[in-house]
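Please, structure for the following, as tokens.
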Amino acid sequence: MAETSPPDQADTLPRHDGLEGRLLALLAPPIAAMGYEIVRIRLSGKERPTLQIMADRADGAPIGLDDCEAISRTVSAILDVEDPIQGAYTLEVSSPGIDRPLTRPKDWVRWAGHAARVETTAPIEGRRRFSGTVLGLAEVPAAARLRLEDGREVTVPLEAIRSARLVLTDALIEATRPDRPRN
């Protein structure tokens, strides 16, 4: 969750700090009003940076090219007025894909039962990389729960996660089929 996010949106927003956090605070409300949720904002590159925005439809339906174009137009207009990024940059709006990053508390609930890889900012139980099955979310403190490949369970505080993403498996492909009902 970004520092500036209202508590009622806590499970729908990724955690971002610095410029990415300010961009999230600026862009999340108008994107939410359009019926979308931001999955991740990433600003990368030096000479001509790329601002990558990954988004989902709030209704759980698959996000398409028309959706990405609509978000891009809205974001471009806001960034042209607010001008939070110095210099020229490239805007890229996309879906999170099947092997999506897990960036929000709700992702750990939605994708329970699927395989994921997690890297932390500091060692937990002597290691920084974990692979296993998502078991859900421990609420206090907010932490991802995983069953590791060796059968042990680990709880990783969300604030300690550097990156986390689903692993492409047959079960994940089946769960993300467009004709499959959403939970």
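The radius of gyration is 17 Å. The longest helix spans residues 65-82.
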